[in-house]
Protein 1
Amino acid sequence: MSIISIKDLHKYFGKVKALDGFDLDVHEGEIHGFLGPNGAGKSTTIRIVLGLLRKKSGDVQLFGQDPWKNAVKLHEKLAYVPGDVNFWPNLTGGEIIDLLGSLRGGLDEKRRKELLAKFQLDPTKKFRTYSKGNRQKVAVVAALASDVPLYILDEPTSGLDPLMEQTFQAEIRALKQAGKTILLSSHILSEAEALCDRVTIIREGKTAGVYTLAELKREHENLQKVFLSKYEGET
Amino acid sequence: MTGTWNLIKLILRRDRVKLPVWILSITGMLLYMIPILKGTYAAPETLNTLYQQFNTMPAGRFLVGSMDGPNFGSLFTLETVLWWGLVIAFMNTLFVMRHTRQNEEMGAQELIMSGRVHRGAGLSAALIVALVMNVVMAALMGAGMGALYDGWGNGSVWLFAAGFAAFGFVWACIAAVLAQLFESTRSANGMAAILIGAAFMLRGIGDFLGEIGGSNGVLQAAWPSWLSPFGWNQATRSLTFPEWWPLLVPLVVAVVAVGVAFVLLNLRDESRGILPSRAGRARAGKFLRTAPGLTVYLQKNIFIGWMCGALALVSVIGALVPQMSKVYDSSPELARMIAEMGGGGAMIPTFLSAMLMITLLMVLAYVIHALSRARAEEGSGHVENLLATSLSRVRWLSLHLVTTLVGAAVMLAISGFVMALCVNTFSSWSVNMSDYVFGALSYWPMAALLAGLYVALFGLLPRLAGLVLWVIYGYIAFMSWIGPLMRVDQWIMNISPLSHFASVPSEAVKFAPLAAATAVAATAALLGFVSWRRRNLVQQ
């Protein structure tokens, strides 16, 4: 079953084409990598999937429903880490985690405590006083502390140190074990290679390819080579 | 200081549009007042009527000051010193904060300081550009005034201009101190706004309590005016009885403030404030975990700020009532004129009603400020995090709207109550409390009207909503504050919806404007909600 299904999606900002016939299919229970360089349309796609932006044309289904029309009901089933982590400067990390958790319909207390410890995040600091990596952790902990079927993560590890990156990867694998679906937007190819079951590569608003990691491995292909081949002539 | 010149160039580059626009629009509007006022009020008999009116109406003295005589210079001073002063004060504090504290908050300062730059260079550069900005503005003012009106003489005109330059720069220096104290730009700007408001009010109290006298037979402001930069600027009486020495006060204050700012700068860490930022709570309280809780949290300080302002205003007004007879005893001529107008008995309710309307203006400003917070939440991207949860767009916007409207009702009721309470406590005069509470509440549809318009624009033109609403507010405020005193033509006044409301409680409540305002508010809000449902999120 498809959790996210996008067909022939178009989106313009004024005259600028952000998405130009994009397709994406995320299956239940998989970790789906969403790869592409900056400005290719990853965040725009995610915002349309969340019902935050209006599509121009095409078909977008989230859990089989239109996310623009049923945004609120659908949001109970997902947790989101935004690409630009930007929260209220005067609230503490702990307060932000609680707030977002309860707005999603509750968060798991045990899990919250566990994640704060694993990510070594001090919840008493005001958001504005966190460093870049710690700001990222607030968003990641807030999302992972919710028990939902779908996690949409927009470049969640930019700014995390290698140790935290390991912790993050372990948590994502655990979620997959528990049967959750994860859409992971990234431009860190090694991370995608390590985590994902399948990847979709986006280029200038179009789907440039969909690959199964296991298949690539069988054919002794390397994700980096495949990815770069999509952009030949540009570098 | 090493690096100052480079940072000056950086400021000029960043503000290459803003600075000329500010300077030209402020001086342009000021100079434009000369032909406008000359056209309407130049006749000696008109000036004479205005002179009597301003000096006999307590509301007039408190709100705009008094006239030194039935002459054009006095009228022009009255019309400009406070209003342009207010704009220039904010221009200076916002400018200094933008180039000092905001740089640190953004993290740009850290990068700048990693170069060959002295620790004090950023502050020096901001203050130097502020000084130049005020001097250029004053030069344009002086030259323009000399060219447009020949009745004042060069000395007077340049004293007027210099008064504004000193006034503006003293606020820049005060902002320099505040920038050292607070860690967030928002708090620093908030404190600057409080100080400007307090200075504005102190000048009002000083003029209210002042006495006619001295060698010129003009109003001598009482001591509170001397605590206020507005009062210092007024004291030069540049266009009537010019005095240079009051300029020394802002100059001394500026020098002291700059000294304090640099001492504090050397005592603190980069990007930290002298007032420390404490650790907060590890858990969100029950209330903060809900969408209404968050909305109230976000609007809380805006409400508290304006509520304190309104309380300060109404209690000052209440405390001034017993002083009213004393003020008018100081001049037998004034006493005679007041007797002709119906005596103190008729004057007090009129005064209090006028003041209630001024309190309403603070409530209306609160409404716009509070709803701007909703737009700021969208512009900064915070709302994206919320709408990605099970909070709907309609519910999110309704929460902001309802919080604001309830806030406005509470603020009106409390203001009316405290005003009546102060009058009854401080003076021998006695008023009916409920008249004031319900009178104040009868203005609530005005608050709803502005809120409705804001929501409509938020849906349709989110980037422009704040600006348009502040322009509408400016018109409404101007017409109710000095429209009647200046005897502006009725049809111009009538464009402002507030002009159709009764001046409560001295007049009976009129229901037609209440119903009309509520209906327009509801329609506008509905339109706003429909558009907000349909549009993209728009970041700044």
Note: The beta strands of chain B are 211-213, 218-220.
Protein 2
Amino acid sequence: MKIKTKPYGEIEVDEHQRIRFPEGIIGFEGILNYFLLDSREGPFYWLQSEEYPELAFLIMDPRIFRKDYEIEVKVSDLDALNLKSKDDLLDFAIVTVPEDHSKISANLMGPILINRRTRTAKQVISENDSYGVKHYILEEMKKKKAVLRETG
Amino acid sequence: MLVLTRKRNESIMIGDSVEVSVIEVKGDQVKLGIKAPRDIKVHRKEVYLAIQKENIDASKLSIDRIGDIGGFFEKKKKTSEHPPHKKKHSE
């Protein structure tokens, strides 16, 4: 089927790319249907709203810049997604790109969890207080490299 | 807004299923205990608002900004991480 997307205009998508958020995304509660798209740039994906072409979130695997990132959420959040096995769980962080690109950041406090078997998703709130809504990706990658240089 | 005064170890009920009790009062900090069914979300308000604001900021992304950000990352993602094109579970 064809849908209109924010990043690429009208494109062909597969039904398997459909992701449903029964509760919506925080701040976008009424919008339940998205498609997960591959991005053409870098290690990203898009969550594209089906109904609103202008609404799309850039998302990424947070382990790209935080290898040690761990999901800590309430059991009720996993229950809401009907997650039976860890293998069914996918998690992403929403990415914010401001005017100054070097300040690109990822939200590790409100990760997106997807049950890839049922393709239902939910934005959850991390139980780990050390994660914030704005982790500057490039800065944290640089820090990691500096540490590697010192130890290696 | 309903305003109630409670002492330590006293609680209030919200409906039949939510109980909020005062565990400890220290200076301007109050420790609350909340008993609620699993389907009722309980969050600190500022956390919820911070995520909401960040989501709204993220949604304002303009596409012409995207062009060069891919260059910040050396590694191409692993294809195994690509979820939606995974095989159907019926296969």
Note: Residues 3 and 12 of chain B are 11 Å apart (CA to CA).
Protein 3
Amino acid sequence: MNHNPKLPNNELSTIYPLDHSESIKVYETKSDVDIWNAFNSGDEIAFNYIYRMYVTVLFKYGCQMCKDKYHVQDCIQNVFIDLRRKRGQLNEVQNTKAYLFKILYRELIRKSNKSKEEVHQYPEKIGKNFFIEFSQETKLIQQEIQQEKIEIIKIAINKLTCRQRQAILLLYKEGMTYTEISIAMDFSEVKSARKVIYRALATMKTLLQTKSENEV
Amino acid sequence: MDLFSIYNMKYKDYDIDHFITDEFFIQWIKNPNENNNHFWEKWIEQHPEKRPLVNEAANLIRSVEYANDPEFTDRMYTETFEQILKADNHFRQLEAVSPTKISTTPTKNVNYFFFVRGVAASILVLFGLWAQYQAFNFKPESVEIPEIALITRTNPSGQKSIIDLPDGTKIHLNAESEIEFPQEFSADIRFVSLKKGEAFFEVQKELRPFWIQTGKAKIRVLGTSFNVKKIGTESLQVALVTGKVSVDTENGSRMRLEPNEMLVIEDGGKYQKTDFDPKEVIGWKDNYLVFKISGLPEIRRKLEQWYGVKIELKGDFDEKWTYSGIYKDEMLENVLRGICMTSGMNYKINKKQIILTNPK
């Protein structure tokens, strides 16, 4: 028996939006480094694979910091165009997903910095990003938890700082390791990623505790 | 135990904290594989009392979702992929077009080449090759049309025109302006090139995208009407009336415009977005000649363009003097009379030669 209580609609279905292609078959057993090197040396199937694997998750992630989905689409386009242009001179990448998340994040910041209005709105914008929702697809949760309690948690979690929410989403939604989070969030050390998560959860506890004490 | 109490637990119970911060556990939930399945199944077997806790932790981890969750449609997926490959091809074509230029550039700085030389040098060539790429890539059967006949329309000063394109798009071409477009658009794209001057586009909405090349910038139309003005060699002004356009600049930025927004790109790439006075910016297409706090040089330029005349200035003119006024379908003489009345200048018309004098 498999104890891993899988959701009915598996995560993988969102990773492969179109039909599996030859590229998937060729590359699914290879390591990120191998695939990246193949891409760097001009292998089109490797590029195809990378695009197929990550473009959708990149889009969803990008939309957490920018409401304009077409702008996110443009930034993703730029990221890939740039990578293709630099083929032959790309540095080795150990973790493709985390690396792509990082460069998309940078591109979105760069682009928002470019126009004056955006710069003005910037601090506020950042604070409003990476909001978290709790899916209620899981039956267990629906049975045991009332709507209002989920709402309370949702309010508390969205009171965290933007960076904390970003890290939480990378950890739980994207299923990244701390190493991957530190790459995606441009931290120089892995322990910074751990720290952000620990601090976020500690804050959550305090927020919920205060809330429940007030209710008593 | 419920989700609320998980978070609400006192520090005495570290179990749930441990689970939801343990990456090996999270990896099992999010990216199960043989390895972590084996470990956790065994662990639960040995610690059956922890099963509810594990389930709660797993549910908590799984329930975290993005609040903003727009769909990346199949269309966006394909569109993005095509754009990426197109840019790539674009770039390669440019390298192929001017091989001598590459060899004279010792540093082989591709970016420098791409932005500074390539595009500015050969817009027409770029279009031709690109169109072939399009045909090759997306519509193999159209390869039998080897060359696309291009039509150029040029307006001298003093003359405006309206061009109706086969797709239903209407272009108002201002005086001293030039535009180029294919006799027939390809099956995949509508592409015109504003060589100089100013044009107002009323683009017919349809499936094929509409692109306007102006110098180093490319304007992508998403169904709409707007005004494009190419000032000098580099600078560009795009004013949007309805619909949506995006502008790709030479340095790779893409800006989107909303209705009533105007984008001004100066020489050197600096740009700003502003709102605009429609009469002032696009009045010309309805024969409104508009001066809005205009200095003499601007007035002179506008009149020369509008009426196809040469204006000579005689005497000293106050640089701070400005003039505002609107004329519709007005004869040159009436406009000159209006300007001179408020300024104290005199005018003299000799066929296409105008002399403005300031007696003061």
Note: Residues 128-216 of chain A form a domain with the Arc Repressor Mutant, subunit A fold (CATH 1.10.10.10).
